[in-house]
């Protein structure tokens, strides 16, 4: 695959959230240019539109976790994916609200009256938000301790463990991994232990070739092979490989099928499509299903560049 310079031109015609990541991850530009583009996220385009929805008490969408996908949790996750400046001040009151209203007696996060324990996926998401947005509170360590306790013998996590689940979930595992990785970038608490637990979870995913049943070797869920953005709580092949490159996980032959899948999904014009959207409410539509996706193109090129599987020319 030779990456055409027209694809990069097209990417750079997109939202500031796309442009700054193209500059940071795919092109050779100075740090000042990257920072200038990132700063625009709060003032222009998708980021500014999301921030305009914040309510006076810090909530988005009138709720903490629901309604999907306009609640405080999912709006902050999207802002984190966009790359909003971590020091953006108004996000702190949103984080404070998420902690005060969600911290449960077992040390995790629980926004659900019907549950008598914390929700592991949500705890991973909230840890990620607190870590990225530099929300400082000693009780955040409780979330880390909860997640470390909840890790299953096979190396991953499953939010249904309290119901007796004996095998880890792809979905829960990626949400916890993203939370632990962001926490480890900005905090030193339990750093050696966290790195070891991340390593164990990566091995769990590799044992499944990232998207296959460990019993049959068949694709576990075809939805994992269709690339969506935002993924919200759902796992897919592109999301996990983008996590791997972010975490600098070295190439392993068990990634081969997943990487091949990404390469096959490239269109003749060098771009990738938005293949899937998660049903639910949104403030606005960033991209249309079935059409070329800057998000998927950016992430796919980023993954292939990191693993050096193709001759990619960068302009």
Could you characterize the architecture of this molecule?
The chain has 315 residues and is mainly alpha-helical. It has a domain at 54-207: Alpha/alpha barrel (Glycosyltransferase), CATH 1.50.10. It is 47% helix and 0% strand. It is built from 13 helices and no strands. The chain has helices spanning 5-12, 16-25, 31-39, 45-51, 72-82, 91-102, 120-132, 140-150, 170-186, 191-207, 237-246, 256-264, 294-307. The protein is globular.
Short account of what is shown:
The protein has 13 helices and no strands.
Structural class: mainly alpha
N→C terminal distance = 15 Å
The CATH topology annotation of the domain at 54-207 reads as Glycosyltransferase
Helix content class:
40-55%
Task: Describe the structure using short key phrases.
315 residues; Glycosyltransferase; disordered C terminus; mainly alpha; 47% helix
Question: What's the helix and strand layout?
Answer:
Blueprint: H1 5-12, H2 16-25, H3 31-39, H4 45-51, H5 72-82, H6 91-102, H7 120-132, H8 140-150, H9 170-186, H10 191-207, H11 237-246, H12 256-264, H13 294-307
């Amino acid at each position: 695959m030779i990456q055409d310079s027209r694809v990069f031109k097209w990417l750079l015609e997109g939202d500031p959230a796309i442009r700054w990541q193209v500059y940071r991850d795919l092109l050779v530009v100075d740090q000042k240019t990257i920072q200038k583009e990132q700063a625009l996220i709060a003032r222009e385009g998708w980021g500014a539109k999301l921030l305009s929805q914040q309510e006076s008490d810090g909530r988005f969408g009138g709720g903490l976790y629901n309604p999907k996908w306009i609640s405080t949790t999912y709006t902050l996750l999207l802002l984190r994916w966009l790359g909003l400046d971590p020091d953006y001040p108004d996000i702190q009151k949103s984080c404070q609200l998420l902690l005060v209203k969600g911290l449960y007696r077992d040390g995790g996060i629980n926004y659900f009256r019907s549950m008598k324990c914390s929700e592991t996926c949500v705890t991973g998401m909230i840890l990620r938000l607190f870590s990225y947005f530099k929300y400082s509170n000693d009780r955040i360590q409780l979330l880390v301790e909860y997640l470390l306790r909840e890790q299953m013998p096979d190396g991953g996590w499953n939010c249904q463990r309290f119901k007796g689940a004996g095998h880890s979930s792809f979905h829960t595992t990626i949400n916890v991994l993203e939370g632990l990785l962001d926490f480890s970038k900005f905090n030193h608490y339990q750093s050696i232990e966290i790195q070891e637990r991340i390593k164990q979870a990566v091995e769990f995913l590799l044992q499944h070739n990232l998207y296959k049943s460990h019993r049959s070797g068949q694709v576990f869920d075809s939805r994992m092979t269709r690339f969506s953005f935002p993924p919200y709580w759902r796992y897919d092949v592109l999301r996990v490989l983008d996590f791997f490159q972010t975490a600098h996980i070295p190439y392993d032959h068990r990634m081969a099928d997943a990487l091949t899948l990404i390469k096959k999904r490239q269109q003749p014009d060098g771009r990738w499509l938005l293949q899937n959207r998660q049903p639910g409410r949104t403030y606005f539509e960033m991209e249309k299903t079935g059409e070329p996706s800057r998000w998927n193109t950016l992430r796919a090129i980023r993954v292939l560049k990191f693993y050096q599987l193709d001759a990619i020319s960068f302009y």
